[in-house]
Amino acid sequence: MYQDTYKVLKNYFGFTQFRQGQEEIISALLGGKDVLAVMPTGAGKSLCYQVPAIMLEGLTVVISPLISLMKDQVNALTDMDIAGAYLNSSLTADEYKAAITRAGRGAYKILYIAPERLKRDDIRYLSNQIGIAMVVIDEAHCVSQWGHDFRPSYLLITEFIQSLPKRPIIAAFTATATGKIQDDIIHILKLEEPYLLTTGFNRENLYFEVQKPENKFQTLLDYLRNHQDKSGIIYCATRKTVEELCQTLNDRGYGATRYHAGLEDQERRENQDHFIYDRKPLMVATNAFGMGIDKSNVSFVIHYNMPKNIESYYQEAGRAGRDGSRADCILLYSPQDVQINKYLITNLQNDEIPKDETLIQHNLELLKAMTYYATTNECLRSQILAYFGEVAPHFCGNCSNCNTLFEPTDITIPAQKIVSCIYRIEQRGKRFGKLMVIDILRGSKNKKILNLGLNTLSTYSIMADTDPHRLRTIIDYLVENRYLGLEGNEYPVLCPGPRSKEIIFDKKSLSMMLPKEIKPSRLSTPAADKEPSFDKELFAKLKELRNRLAQKARQPGYIIFTDASLHDMCLKKPRTLDQFHSVSGVGLVKMSKYGELFTKLIREYKDKQQDPM
Ligand code: ADP
Ligand code: MG
Asked: Using CA positions, which residue lies closest to atom 26 of ligand 1?
């Protein structure tokens, strides 16, 4: 019926296929139906209303909570020759007036408006003057108190819609909404028999990991060292942690910037831009940062502290990998995080939201679910999906629990090695604590070992390949089952246990539940290792060209082409404009604007390769 949607998709956006859910939503909207769509971050919600906005007669108004998002979206639209503008507090009085006058003349197809503006007379006047075909509510969960991001100004939307001379089509979009919140959205916004679409919440390209490190900072540094050229967000619970962490990272030479609600508006804007424009690859922030941030190449989100519920966590973590590339979502958990969150939930109120016992209880329940996620042995992805009411397989194979789940493991040989090491140490008239024994078994060259000549023990270094945590787990098991003894209170030392002879003389076979032998942790494997191989040199050149163009246009790079588009260029290596048009993300406008430059670069690059001097 709507053959033309594919034309619009290719000619403006440069894509040949709709993603899951997009086509259904677009035809519902074009057919005049209200829509409520719950689709995960990065699924492509904007396109669901931008395509109909282009095709519908009249103006589409988009209500969106974040100023930075509007600017980005409008820039991206303008770069595709779609007439759009925004009305929010970042405009000067003159700019604002100019935009509203042009809107009144029907110059735009899409107009983004901040919710608190809806009560202004000039907007009321405008909406009576021209036909509004559709009102889109982005981040629609903001209307609900039960959501994690309630915004009272969102309650102005309903009244605004009711004041319009003709009821427009209403489309609500959000990434995170449980059933309860979906009901709220439908009732508060008064959607009429909406077309309801919930694509799965799953994001296959995201890897989930929970770490319980003794030293969070060290763990973070290890990760960053292995991901030097990547861009990522580090979320912290408090402003103070943000300040300290950002400072320390900068002291160590990392390009980090910071964001929290205590900073001046101007600094926040600048820092956000540093991050978005890739001048600073790392953003250290509280949860004040990020809603609507559309940076496509965030390749990891690390939570330095546990957030207060799974919705927040998934929304924040979901800012990774928006362009579909593999990305890491890592939570650094400590039990203290639970205490801090409990305190925040029970003691702090927002000025706008009065203290409410039911709400507090509700939030404590959500915190419990989050804590369970952080401490469970089950598949992490399945936990998240189950929280949103989805039935998911128990094993995803792409989270830290699946990769390290327990399995029955034969420990007969390791047990013999450990117990005989304890015997050898006894023979020298000595006893040591667990850590020292582990060092001996793994062949450490620490001073104490060398000074005491323990490196001459026949059992020195016989378990050099065994991970120290794993070794410790086995030792604990042997102590628990009295194959080994533990003596002394303050500095307990290992000694043979009442049953140690069963191991040494009877060669008793033993088995215990152990995590599957760990392949080197993802924390030390750069995500890039798993990406399909492509021409890195060409990619770097294309990126440089894109960034140069972006700088000239004072735009973030991804407004011109996303990294995903550059990847596709590396694969397709287009030499002609026609071939260039087949690259994902290249529409007619981008082809004529940039095609010449990019194909020239690719032609020269390929010719040089074929003719190495
Ligand atoms: P969200 O659902 O989080 O609002 P966006 O609308 O910002 O997601 O889209 C995320 C990314 O997906 C953008 O870079 C966008 O260009 C891309 N995208 C959207 N639809 C398609 C499609 N049909 N084919 C390829 N890429 C798409
Ligand atoms: Mg969006």
From this structure: 15
Fold of 407-515: Arc Repressor Mutant, subunit A (1.10.10)
2-198 belongs to which CATH class? alpha beta
- Decide whether 2-198 matches 532-610 in CATH topology: no
Let me know if 328 is exposed, middle or buried by CB neighbors in 10 A (0-12, 13-18, 19+).
Answer: buried
Atom of ligand 1 nearest to the CA of 17: 23
- Give residue 44 CA to ligand 2 midpoint distance, Å: 7
Residue 302, both tokens = 């690390």
Around Cβ 211, how many Cβ atoms within 10 Å?
18
pLDDT digits (tens, 9 = 90+) for 250-284: 999 999 999 999 999 999 999 999 999 899 999 99
pTM, two decimals, is 0.62
Pocket-testing residue among 18, 22, 46, 112, ligand 1, by greatest number of atoms within 8 A of Cβ: 46
* Of the options 3.40.630.30, 3.60.15.10, 3.40.50.300, 3.30.2090.10, the CATH number for the domain spanning 206-404: 3.40.50.300
Which CATH architecture describes the domain 532-610? Orthogonal Bundle (1.10)
CB 491 within 8 A of CB 432: no
Residues at CB less than 6 angstroms from ligand 1: 15, 17-19, 22, 39, 41-47, 294, 296, 322-323, 562, 584
Q: CA-to-CA distance for 290 and 111, rounded, in angstroms?
A: 22
The answer to whether the CB of 441 falls within 8 A of the CB of 475 is no
- pLDDT, tens digit, for every residue of 88-100? 988 999 999 999 9
